[in-house]
Design a protein that fits this description.
The protein has eleven helices and four strands; from the N terminus they run βαβααβααααααααβ. The chain is globular and about 55 Å long. Its main location: cytoplasm.
């Protein structure tokens, strides 16, 4: 079925976006498969399988330890960007060794996931080079798992993200584990709005700490010229409760609503469904991505 939506120009902010819009169509191009590489539906967290047992254990820890104070502390610590200096591509290569324990759909090294999603977008939207690079960049924050970053445990690097400082929405995966999170019993943090005001904007919300927020910080602090929509995708692509289930709308402002359109395209088609066993020849596509990196990022970034 053809589903076409009006998209604001990614390079404009809300003030100017309505004057420049382009039509992109969600049908055609990359065909969304029904099953993941293990023959199960995508993001099926309840199906009994060995992989799902470890995914469940991952979320048990994640939901207990991610508190408002913890996330704020991590943001401060990593906001200093004093851990490393390296190019964006060097970071892609570092991710070669990591497998994401939160992911029921993929057990390939992360660099494959980055290139699989970027290459699928490149085929469908050949002219939106910023969008190809967004895909390549979106999960690079998982470098927090690397020993040179202190080898953070998986529960504070990967997995879906959610707002802290206010009540946990039921639509967050494995919601039941939040009952053992200290914030659930703290009256400052366990009401619908908690520490926030209605429609304060996601920019003002403290999300659970992980690769999204970290990579957003790195890209911004290193003065990327990627458009605002790219930064929004990088920052909120794991916030499934919001972009898939429509929860937490009371925290969003108009700007967020506009950016959501790009996030939907990225998530509903590419981030999730391009995960496959068909591997990309890294050396073959490397020159193209190096040219994009050169266009949108400095040669060396502070991490
Ligand atoms: O397991 C996945 C994976 O860690 C992704 O990188 C993240 O963006 C998803 O939201 C998460 O559920
Ligand atoms: Fe991710
Ligand atoms: Fe991803």
């Amino acid at each position: 079925m053809a589903l076409s939506i009006q998209l604001p120009d990614a390079s404009r902010t809300s003030e100017t976006s309505s004057s420049v819009s382009l039509e992109l169509s969600l049908d055609g191009g990359f065909a969304v498969p029904e099953n993941n590489a293990f023959g199960n539906g995508f993001r099926d967290y309840n199906k009994e399988s060995e992989r799902n047992l470890s995914v469940e254990e991952f979320y048990r820890k994640n939901h207990i330890y991610q508190t408002y104070e913890f996330a704020k502390k991590k943001r401060e610590e990593y906001g200093k960007l004093d851990k490393a200096e390296m190019s964006l591509w060097e970071c892609c290569e570092l991710l070669n060794e990591f497998i994401d324990e939160s992911d029921p759909d993929l057990d390939e090294p992360q660099i494959q996931h980055l290139l699989q999603s970027a290459e699928a977008i490149r085929r469908d939207y050949p002219d939106e080079d910023w969008f190809h690079l967004t895909a390549l960049t979106h999960d690079l924050g998982k470098v927090l798992l690397h020993p040179s970053f202190g080898g953070e445990p998986q529960w504070c690097v990967v997995g879906d993200t959610f707002p802290l400082g206010c009540a946990f929405d039921e639509s967050v995966v494995h919601h039941r584990f939040f009952k053992d999170n200290p914030d659930s019993n703290n009256p400052k943090y366990n009401t619908k709005l908690g520490v926030y005001s209605e429609n304060c904007g996601l920019d003002n919300v403290t999300m659970s700490w992980g690769h999204d927020e970290y990579m957003y910080m790195v890209a911004k602090a290193n003065n990327t010229t990627l458009p605002p929509a790219a930064l929004f995708v990088i920052r909120f692509h794991s916030f499934y409760a919001m972009h898939r289930s429509g929860a937490y709308q009371y925290l969003m402002n108009e700007e967020d609503e506009k950016m959501l359109k790009w996030l939907h395209i990225f998530n509903t088609k590419y981030d999730l469904y391009t995960k496959s066993k068909v591997l990309i020849d890294v050396e073959k596509v490397k020159p193209y991505y190096l040219s994009l990196i050169e266009k949108y990022f400095p040669a060396k970034l502070k991490w």
